Amino acid sequence: xxxTPRTALTIAGSDSGGGAGIQADLRTFFACGVHGLVALxxxxxxxxxxxxxxxxxxTEIVTAQIxxxxxxxxxxxxxxxxxxxxxxxxxxxxTLDEVHIGHGTGVPFVVDPVAAxxxxxxxxxxxxxxxIRTELFPRATLITPNLDEVRLLTGIEVTGPETQREAAKAxxxxxxxxxxxxxxxxxxxxxxxDLLSDGTRVIELSGPRFHTNNTHGGGDTMASAITASLxxxxxxxxxxxxxxxxxxxxxxxxxxxxxxxxxxxxxxxLKD
Length: 272
Ligand code: PLP
What we know:
The protein is about 40% helix and about 20% strand. The chain is α/β, with parallel strands linked by helices. The protein has a single domain, classed as 3-Layer(aba) Sandwich (UDP-N-acetylmuramoyl-L-alanine:D-glutamate ligase).
């Protein structure tokens, strides 16, 4: 008999280069064995050299996509990526309440607070940062900022384990259940140490650092792998451990494409 897989919803933007955004989310969901659902928020014009521009989708169309799939197919876990504007963030937050997704509903919700690409191009209008903090974080099961996003959200410059803990504590005050402060951008540290905390437990996850220029889509891929594990019923610490193992392989098997930054890749899952 055919078994219907679990479902995971991504609320995020498109990357024309196919390395990040919903393209990364969907291929990660597929590689992790869950059915991917999409609410598209923005269309970026992008290649390996960076983001040349973007257009956001009408707020009503964003929320209608969420309602359409949640009402008919059901959502076992959801994540957000690029949300572009404060209006979209506010509308998404309201809709998640209506369809019972997020902290306290039994349907885990991961917020990857995407603000800019690694090439430094803005993916979020400036006024929207406050909406991420006040509208999304309190509804989140887990938030997954990288160190640039930590600085934007809290003003804390993470330089080592102590400031990483301080940042986790400050971020939890915005109301998410868990925070994962990713240490991948701390290049002076030989291992890649991420810090997971719910305020009571503090869990250090250490993994190897791979020296490659091809890391485009890494944040999206990790958050999607964690979301897929949550959709399958894992608890947050186990889902984050699985997500970390998944992204390590994806970075190890990333490839050059175009003149700039190539994508991380879950192709290894197909080979295995
Ligand atoms: N484009 C889109 C649509 C994204 O959602 C993201 C990250 O979330 C990026 C680009 C940036 O990816 P990276 O920082 O890995 O280059």
